[in-house]
Amino acid sequence: MSEKVRYTITACISGTSCNFDCGYCYRKKQGVEEKNQPSYFRYSVDYMLNALSKQRLGGIADIIVIGGGETLLHPDVVPFIKGLLAEGHIVEVVTNMTLNHRIDELLDNTPPEHLERLLVKGSFHYLELKRLNKLDDFFNNMKKVVDAGASCFPFLVICEEYIPLLDEIKSVFIENLGELPHCTSALDFTEAKMQPYGFYNSEFKKIVTEKFGSKINDTFDRFLSVDVKKHFCYAGEWSFVLNTSNGSISRCFYSPSEQNIFKDISSEIKLGAIGTNCCIGNCALHYNLVSQGIMPDFDDVISYGDMLYKPKLFNKKLVELLNFKYENYMPLFSKEEEQKINAKTRETFEELKTKV
Ligand code: SF4
Ligand code: SF4
Fold it and tell me: What is the CATH number of the domain that holds 294?
């Protein structure tokens, strides 16, 4: 029987630098200096790994390593990922899949038993890949990951400029990989509720479903219209977001930072459930968390491993590892406890807001 996953951790790599310049990227609106901020780590890789040891976390974790720009640009990121794998964690890394030397470094001399816990999510930025003549690199790196015994999947965020190109993109994938990408659609981050753009209508949804049949997209679409503030969420209790530049953690995205887990690595990690105090309007982009059962009200959501699975690109062991639901083995709160947690968390967030 495999070990139980204790936490899902989103480990954010600071900085905005990227080797791409996608027209739809949030970086586009930034000035030259702002959009070229390198990643920064106050602590050494070994120190960060100690802070995230299995012993301290109380078990293995599913750790998503994701940058504000290209995740793998900083030379410390690959050793950090390899160290997390060596500790026994599952590691998901999000990258534009074009830094060949970093992909090689990630795979070279990494034992097979570590690689089977590695998932590389390759963000597919078609127009930039063509402009920079890097389409071959993208697909070659995907194949390298699979050949090494790790898993990967391509991921397409459908923006307006991609709509006339969907058939072309589909053909490129069939020809180069024999698998289609998972997808979601771009959301408007200027709105507090992060709603889709005007093109996201029923006809568009039907076209995307027919063309790509992505189970991530199905879940994304479902949770766009779920009012998460009406459902108790265990983010903070079963998951958290880590700022790797300094060690501060928060229960989920946009919730306040409440603890620093790097300052004193002997301290207990203690956040508590966010309950009904989600700081985002919907949970569509966090399909990983909903599929792992972060809101037990939605126990019918497909398991995460099955949601992601692409036969030609996945190691079956990883699919098994990712097919867990926290509610099946973690303690659940009673309705009365939930109400108390909701009120206490609301109070904590209000207090923290006044301190900012
Ligand atoms: S690859 Fe990602 S971070 Fe880089 S410019 Fe494109 S969207 Fe932005
Ligand atoms: S509902 Fe989703 S986005 Fe909101 S706190 Fe929970 S996991 Fe995070």
Answer: 3.20.20
